Amino acid sequence: xxxxSAENESSNFFASTSHTYAISDSVALRIHSDTKPLNxxxxxxxxxxxxxxxxxxxxxxxxxxxxxxxKYSGETFFSGSSFLEVHKKDNxxxxxxxxxxxxxxxxxxxxxxxxxxxxxKIIDSISLLYQKHKHLAQLILHTKRLLFKVGVDSIxxxxxxxxxxxxxxxxxxxxxxxxxxxxxxxxxxxxxxxxLNEQGAHFFRKYSDSEGLKLNDEEIGAWDGVTAQxxxxxxxxxxxxFTLKNVExxxxxxxxxxxxxxxxxxxxxYELNPENDQFEYEIEVFx
Length: 287
Description:
Blueprint: E1 12-13, E2 18-22, E3 27-32, E4 50-53, E5 56-57, E6 64-72, E7 76-78, E8 81-89, E9 92-100, E10 103-109, E11 112-114, H1 118-132, H2 137-149, E12 152-158, E13 164-172, E14 175-181, E15 190-199, E16 204-209, E17 214-216, E18 224-225, E19 230-235, E20 241-245, E21 250-259, E22 263-272, E23 278-286
Antiparallel strand pairs: 1-8, 2-3, 3-4, 4-5, 6-7, 6-15, 7-10, 8-9, 9-13, 10-11, 10-12, 13-14, 14-23, 15-22, 16-17, 16-19, 18-21, 19-20, 20-23, 21-22
């Protein structure tokens, strides 16, 4: 839903369901009030700020920049609905998006939900296996491909919300300052907060960081910690990239998964202590 009431006279309010802000002749940033783009299995998840290159959205199956996830003792909660405000003043664009944490993930076999089935346990164990045995990454990714081919996938279903996370994105030139408030989030049994910063894996295929590490495609891994002060994700031709930094009190992780028709995300995600009331970081986009 997009607010339509009158705003401060010093700001211009955009009532459209999406807003695009150009940062160069070829690169722009875009925000949607609904769950666009409706790509693959996360079609009904709310997205953050997404990258646009030469007019095309290159987020793939990624969530965009600055998307919260709450991991509770029994379930992991995502956002399926939101409230959006966008203001412009001078050279600054300020976006305020309230993410309602009202979706949970469920696996399915074709059109059948696997609420507590064996296949759900198998899929859940794949992620744990990867974290313990990184040298099996290619075998694990191949297993995911096989499961997808036979119709095993994830869906997200509505549930009673666990409150809201308010995210403010301030865009100035090629920088995005992200501020998150968790004051309206239910903290009971909350174990971790994740902040996703993802774009499309088929478009962005290179990783590098301030420690000199350089990785391509599958070498990036799926959930590896970043010890460097800053890390960068770049497309194959070095036309566009985005950089994030390690932030005190948070853990930065890199990841990439690419399976045609199913997985298409690459990103730099933060893992936070559930006691955090606020979190702030910056994204720099080059292109």
